[in-house]
Amino acid sequence: MKLVIDANVVISALVADSKTRELIVTLEPDLLTPAFVYDEIDNYEELIVEKSGMEPDRVAQFIDLLFQYIEVVPADDFYPAIDSVDKAIGDIDPDDVLYLACAIASDAAIWSDDSDFNEQGLVATYSTSDVIDSFDTL
Q1: Domain total for the chain?
Q2: Integer Cα distance of 21 and 15 in angstroms
Q3: What range does the domain containing 100 cover?
């Protein structure tokens, strides 16, 4: 199974040594994310540094480490799905359109704690607790 992971889950893994971080590096499902996730992470870099207590270079190292386990999908790979997805969820949360388009183009589900994904019926959505319950074999 493939899961498209959103920026909030990645940021959560960067902020704390948590179950989320552990799941990212140990899950059997393939983890994917659209390339723009780097922009979203950059927008929260100061918050990540503050909440994690790590120096900026250490945060950068953790980002690199986590992305050894997450495949970054270029926009060209899911661009054709954007229009249909925008109609399904664009009015609810335009920021989620690219994650959903990536999931459809990759034949994947979504891993997010954003409840807006529950408003669509195009792909399955898993919260972090769902992922823990469904995939955790540790």
Answers
A1: 1
A2: 9
A3: 2-130
